[in-house]
């Protein structure tokens, strides 16, 4: 996977620039920066929102392409850990510099909120991309079709950890001898 990214960066990141990630991330994160900067006043909130909107419109397509490249990596947990480490390091370092240069008022709380959002959104994006949604490469569908799947995918994502725990519990119970009745 890594070799492919280094050997063919144009094909894997530029030509697969994920416009779906760019649109959705820009809107979501611009709203986040607006909300976290509202205490600094409306002009500061709008300035932070505009900065994040432009920044994300440019960068999120590349991050989406990177995530999409990892959607077929096995095992899935290895892909999730990899993108959860790679994306935030690159993403938030650059984001911090852009907002610092711009003079975003509530920079620390904005970046913390953005990092928390990234932790969840990266794993969620990888989850839905493994199921064929929000991709722009082979097997893609329209953004409207992707969004129609979101309620089902959000539900499946929310049930992922409980289902895993139940499966592990059944495995443990299946390997233990039956307990005597008392």
Brief synopsis:
With 182 residues, this protein is mainly alpha-helical.
Could you explain the architecture of this structure?
- Helices cover 79% and strands 0% of the residues.
- It has 182 residues and is an all-alpha fold.
Structure characteristics:
182 residues; mainly alpha; 7 helices; 79% helix; 0% strand; globular
Topology:
Elements: H1 2-7, H2 9-14, H3 19-37, H4 42-69, H5 76-102, H6 107-130, H7 143-175
Helix pairs in contact: 3-4, 3-6, 4-5, 5-6
Number of strands: 0
Helix content: over 70%
Major beta-sheet overview: none
Topology as H/E string? HHHHHHH
Q: Provide the gyration radius in Å.
A: 20 Å
**Structural class given helices, strands, pairing?**
mainly alpha
Q: Segments where pLDDT lies below 50 for 5+ residues?
A: none
How many helical stretches? Answer: 7
Strand % is under 5%
Distance between the termini: 55 Å
Shape: globular
What is the mean predicted local confidence, pLDDT? 86
């Amino acid at each position: 996977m890594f070799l492919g990214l280094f050997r063919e960066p144009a094909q894997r990141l530029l030509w697969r620039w994920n416009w779906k990630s760019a649109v959705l991330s820009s809107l979501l994160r611009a709203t986040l920066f607006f909300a976290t900067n509202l205490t600094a006043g409306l002009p500061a909130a709008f300035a932070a929102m505009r900065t994040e909107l432009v920044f994300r419109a440019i960068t999120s397509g590349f991050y989406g392409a990177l995530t999409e490249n990892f959607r077929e990596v096995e095992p899935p947990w290895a892909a999730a850990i990899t993108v959860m480490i790679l994306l935030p390091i690159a993403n938030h370092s650059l984001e911090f510099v852009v907002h610092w240069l711009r003079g975003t008022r509530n920079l620390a709380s904005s970046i913390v909120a953005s990092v928390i959002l990234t932790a969840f959104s990266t794993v969620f994006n990888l989850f839905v991309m493994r199921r064929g949604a929000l991709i722009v490469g082979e097997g893609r569908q329209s953004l409207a079709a992707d969004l129609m799947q979101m309620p089902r995918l959000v539900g499946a994502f929310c049930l992922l950890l409980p289902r895993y725990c139940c499966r592990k519990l059944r495995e443990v119970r299946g390997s233990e001898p039956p307990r005597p009745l008392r």
